[in-house]
Each structure stands twice: as structure tokens, then as C-alpha cells.
Design goal:
The protein is mainly alpha-helical and 135 residues long. The chain contains 7 helices and no strands. The protein has helices at 2-12, 17-24, 28-35, 45-53, 57-61, 79-96, 105-133.
Length: 135
Amino acid sequence: MFGKRLRYLRQQKHLTMKELGQIFGLAESTISGYENGIRSPDIELLPKFADFFGVSVDYLLGRTDDPHGSTPVGEDISFEEKEFLRWVREHVTGVFFAEFDEAPEESKAAVMETLRWYWENIEKPRMKKNKGSNQ
């Protein structure tokens, strides 16, 4: 997850791997290794990357999807939100979006918004109807 997030943040700042490496005194190949998951940064470097990009270390490490907070993924969300995410995981991501995790954050947000509409307006009412007819 770190590599994907680092690549995304670097690209958002319109930096090349070489330019980012120069900022931190690292070789382009080191940045490439981080982004491709071949290498991991030293623990002292993580907060420096976080500060530079204006995100939390937890976000860089994939422990939260909130770039500025530290709420763990899957924690402190409603039962309804957990049900929605379970439905997405079971019925959508593996079937239609095999590369979903690698998609740009903006694209993922747009897809999730559409899926949420579908969930609220079609799937959830269908599930309630089926549950009621089974009783």
C-alpha cells in the first residue's frame, strides 16, 4: 500500500521519481523501489514523506483511507457502512474492478459514489423485499 500511495501523492505534485529523490537525497531507483514494493523506507523517512505530502503516516502505510486522520480502515463506521463495504467487496470489486486498488483516488471515489447510489436505491430495497418474502 505504501508504494501505491507514494506514487499517487508524487504524481499529484507533478514530480518525477528523480525529482522526489533529489528532494529527499535518494536515488531515483530507490523511489522506484518504494513505489513498486521492492524496497521499504527507513522508519525515520516515513514522517518526512508524510510531512512533505501533508498526509499522516497511517495514510501512507494504508492503515487509514483518510489522508489527514488516523481512523483505521473499517473502524468507527456505522453498521450500514460496513454492510455496504461488504457488499462491494463480495459482489463488485473482484468481478468488475480487478484493478480497483490501483486506480487513481478520484476515480475510486467516483465509482464508490455510483455504487453507493446503486446500493441505496436498488440493492438494499431488493434485499429487504427478499428478506420479507422469506419470513
